[in-house]
Amino acid sequence: RLQWRLGHFRVTEVAAWRQRRALVCLHPAHPRVRGPLAARLSWVPKKERSRALSLVTSGITAGTVGSLFLAPMLVKSFGWQSVFYVFGATGFVWTLPWLAIAEDKPKSAEDCAPYACEIEDIEDLLVDKIDDSPPDWTAIPWGEIFKSRAMQGVIACAIAHNVGLILMLSWLPTYFASTYGLDVTNAAAVSAPPWICSFVVANLSGVVADGLVERGFEAGAVRRGFQLVGSVGPSLCLLKIALGQKTAEEATFWFAAALGLAGCSLVGFNAAPQDMARRYAPVVYGTFNAIGNLAGSLAVWLAGFALQANPTTGFQQIFFVAVLIYWLGAAAFLGSYRGEREFA
Question: How do residues 309-321 score in pLDDT, each as one tens digit?
């Protein structure tokens, strides 16, 4: 049985297995949601971008926690189809306030609240000195983007981060159920604390990162430092889990540590678009997120085959591979990223 995490639907193994082909097509579309966020956050001043980005992006983690409790109850009471109906309907609910209040860019200094626009930015905007129109698809400098060493490092780190993150999100309930004999409801409940930890650490990281930038530290150095923690930390925790834990509580602790430390990545590679570009920030964001999510989706698929082929040590093998991928992604990012503006 395979359990997929795709399109940000949290479903049980039975539901995901029956609809696996449809779900695998949904997940790569997820980065399209983040592109507009990158455009809006580019108007937040540098000293506040980390906390703004971590707050917005960590909402995904908060949704994960709620769904881990809600999905089993829906399946038990109304059948697995109810998960798709309920979670799908929430997308329409959230769309209404977004359409009502969202703007492509601030129209005045007051519209930047609660963040104050950088003075030169808002003045240039109001007199139309900044070309902030959506870039034409054919005019996007794809060659320049993919040849950038910094972009290559970001993509490699995004692949590593999403492989580890999506593997844990998809397989945590199954891991607890198969390793410690928990039923679906209890396994989902035990899987929730790691995501709570991730939400808290991500937002604390945003505050600390902004504080360092405000004190004069270079943005590139701050990003690399947090990404080092966000990559090496989770890998060491997964290595500890792969070596075996006696109880579900011990495993929960290490998973919580892994996801908490992974939250530092929200102000690491995940903050790159705001440093690297303005007009093309959504393009940069969408590109590395699409590639990263495709890699994560493929990892979930391959992990299912590994577990089917070797149910006894399958998880151990999966975690060892994830550790190696984390290290490779961290090395690529740390060796290439400098936090400099590279695109328009």
Answer: 888 888 999 999 9
Taking CB atoms within 8 Å and a gap of at least 24, the contacts of 295-299 are: 295/158, 295/159, 295/162, 295/163, 296/27, 296/159, 296/162, 296/163, 296/165, 296/166, 296/167, 297/4, 297/6, 297/24, 297/27, 297/28, 297/166, 299/163, 299/166, 299/167
Global pTM value? 0.75
Q: Which residue has the higher pLDDT, 21 or 273?
A: 273
For residue 338, with 0-12 CB atoms within 10 Å meaning exposed, 13-18 middle and 19 or more buried, which class applies? Answer: middle
Highest mean pLDDT among 21-25, 128-132, 262-266: 262-266
Distance CA 278, CA 38 (A): 9
Mean pLDDT score of the chain, rounded to an integer? 78
Residues 150 and 338: beta-carbon distance below 8 Å:
yes
**According to the 3-state scheme, what is the secondary structure of 169-231?**
HHHHHHHHHHHHCCCHHHHHHHHHHHHHHHHHHHHHHHHHHHHHHHCCCCHHHHHHHHHHHHH
Query: What is the band of 252 on the pLDDT scale with cuts at 50, 70, 90?
Result: confident
Q: Whose CA is closest to 132, among 282, 341, 286?
A: 282
| pLDDT (average), residues 132-136 | 59
Can you give the pLDDT at residue 268? 92
Residue 131: count other Cβ atoms within 10 Å of its Cβ.
Answer: 9
Nearest to 53 by CA among 223, 288, 235, 233: 223
Q: How far apart are the first and last CA of the chain?
A: 46
Instruction: Say yes or no to pLDDT of 152 above 90.
Output: yes
Burial of 47 (0-12, 13-18, 19+ CB in 10 A): middle
Burial 311-329 (b: 16+ CB within 10 A, else e): eeebbeebbebbbebbeeb
- Calpha distance 72→61 (Å, rounded): 18
